[in-house]
Amino acid sequence: MNRLEQLRQFILDDPTDPFNHYALALEYAKSDVETAIAKFEELMRAHPEYLPSYYQAGNLFEAVGKRNQAIAVLQQGIALAKQQQQFKTLRELQSVLDELLYD
């Protein structure tokens, strides 16, 4: 069983765990960017409180030239990080956003 198959099985075993979906999106990012983007979008819709998604999705959007989507996702992540009082993640998201806006 390859890594993608394992991750799909984890989702079948526990579809409510956002980490399983996150790990699958990250794995797709290595070989199929469009599917990875779709998986991150699904994850952020189904589990909007799962903060790690925003950093990775923002970077992925930026990497494929979808600057506006990257900015929007990063801004959503920043708002969520403030709400969750996750200040380290807030600084990381803000740093990526600042690079996009001021680079």
Features:
103 residues; mainly alpha; 6 helices
Summarize the structure in words.
With 103 residues, this protein is mainly α. The chain has one domain (3-102): Alpha Horseshoe (Serine Threonine Protein Phosphatase 5, Tetratricopeptide repeat). It contains six helices and no strands. The chain has helices at residues 3-13, 18-29, 33-46, 52-63, 67-84, 87-102. Helix 4 (52-63) runs parallel beside helix 6. The radius of gyration is 14 Å and the shape is globular. The N and C termini lie far apart (42 Å). The mean pLDDT is 96.
Number of domains: 1
Strand content: under 5%
Reported by name, the CATH topology is Serine Threonine Protein Phosphatase 5, Tetratricopeptide repeat
Structural class computed from helices and strand pairing: mainly alpha
Number of helices: 6
Give the C-level CATH assignment: Mainly Alpha
Helix-residue proportion? over 70%
Please state the average pLDDT score. Answer: 96
In angstroms, what separates the terminal alpha carbons? 42 Å
Radius of gyration: 14 Å
Give the biggest beta sheet. none
Summarize the helix and strand pattern as letters.
Answer: HHHHHH
Question: Please, what is the CATH homologous superfamily?
Answer: Tetratricopeptide repeat domain
Q: What is the annotated CATH architecture?
A: Alpha Horseshoe
Broad shape = globular
Parts with pLDDT < 50 across at least 5 consecutive residues: none
Short description:
The protein has 103 residues and is mostly helical. The chain has a single domain, classed as Tetratricopeptide repeat domain (Serine Threonine Protein Phosphatase 5, Tetratricopeptide repeat, Alpha Horseshoe). It is built from 6 helices and no strands.
